[in-house]
Amino acid sequence: MGKVTVFAIDGCPHCVRAKTNLRDRNIPYVEINLTKHPDKRSDMLSLSDSLTVPQIFFNEKHIGGAIETIALLELWDTDEEQAVHGSPHERYEKEIKSVPDPKDPRLQPSTQPPAKEPVAPPRYKADKVKIPKIDEDQSILDITVRLSKAIPQSNLSHFAKVYKNAISQQALLDAIMQEFELEEGSAIEFGQYLQKRHVFDHVSSDHAFGKNMKKKLFFRLQLFQKPDVLNSFRVWDDRVDPDCMAIVARLDKSMKDIEDRASDSTSSGA
C-alpha cells in the first residue's frame, strides 16, 4: 500500500500548512519528525537534496516543500482535474495508495528511540533585590534604572586617566542614603550587597565598596561598565550549562517559537 511521507520538524509553520492541506483533502500521511528523530535528516537530504522542511513524497516521488505540495493539491482541486481523476482523496486512492509501499529504506520511519529534548539546569538565583527598611523586592533592572536617575554620573580623572560615567565612593554612599532613606552603616551594607549583585562596581573592579570610606575610589553602574555590550544592565551570574549543544538546541527552539509567533499563517515558504 502506497503512502505520503512528510519530513517535518516541531515548530515549523510551513510543515503545519502542508499537513493541514493534506488533512483538509482527507489524504493520510506518515510524518517523519526530524526533531524527534534527527538520524533521519541525512535520509531526507539524500532523497531531496534539500535541508529545508517540509519535504514531501508521494510514494518515492519527491513533490517538494510546502509551496510545491500545496500548488499540486490546488491543481487537483480544479474542475478539470476532478472531471478526469475524481476528488483529491479519490486520486490519492488510485495513484498513491493502490501501488506497493515504497521500498526505499530512507522513506521508512526511524528505528531509533526519540531524541530527548535537552533540559536546562535549574536557575539558582532569583532576579530580585531586597530593599532595606521596607518589605519589598525589586528586580536588578528596576534597581539599575532607579539608581541611574539618583546617582550623578560624571567623568572623573585619576592619575591622568579619565573614567566616564563614574561617581566617587562618598557621592555614591550619599546617593544610596538619600534614595533609600538609610543611615550610613545600613547604606554601606546595602551598597556592598548591590556590588555583589553586580548593580555597580569599582571602575576597574579592584576595590570593594565601603571598606575604606576615606580612600579616593570611583565606582560605576554596571549599565555603564561595558557600553559596547548590547545588554549591559546585567552581569550573568547564574549557572552556565556545560552542554554547549544543548544551549544551541534550546536557542534554536526559542528562535523557531519567535518565528512562529511573528509569521503570517498565510505566508509562503518551503
Protein topology:
Elements: E1 4-8, H1 13-24, E2 30-33, H2 41-48, E3 55-58, E4 61-64, H3 66-77, H4 79-85, H5 88-97, E5 128-131, E6 136-139, H6 140-150, E7 154-158, E8 161-168, H7 169-180, H8 184-196, E9 200-202, E10 218-221, H9 222-225, H10 244-262
Parallel strand pairs: 1-2
Antiparallel strand pairs: 1-3, 3-4, 5-6, 7-8, 8-10, 9-10
Helix pairs in contact: 1-3, 7-8
Please describe the biggest sheet, giving its number of strands, its sense, and whether it closes into a barrel. Answer: 4 strands, mixed
The end-to-end distance, rounded to whole angstroms, is: 27 Å
Number of strands: 10
Structural class: alpha+beta
Strand order of the largest sheet: 2-1-3-4
Order of helices and strands: EHEHEEHHHEEHEEHHEEHH
Q: What are its keywords?
A:
single chain, 270 residues, alpha+beta, four-stranded mixed sheet, four-stranded antiparallel sheet, 10 helices, 40% helix, rod-shaped, disordered C terminus
Provide structural commentary.
The protein is an alpha+beta fold. The protein is 40% helix and 17% strand. The protein has 10 helices and 10 strands. The strands form 3 sheets. It has a 4-stranded mixed β-sheet, sandwiched between helices. Strands 7-8-10-9 form a 4-stranded antiparallel β-sheet. A hairpin with a 4-residue loop joins β5 and β6. Mean pLDDT is 89; it is low at 264-270.
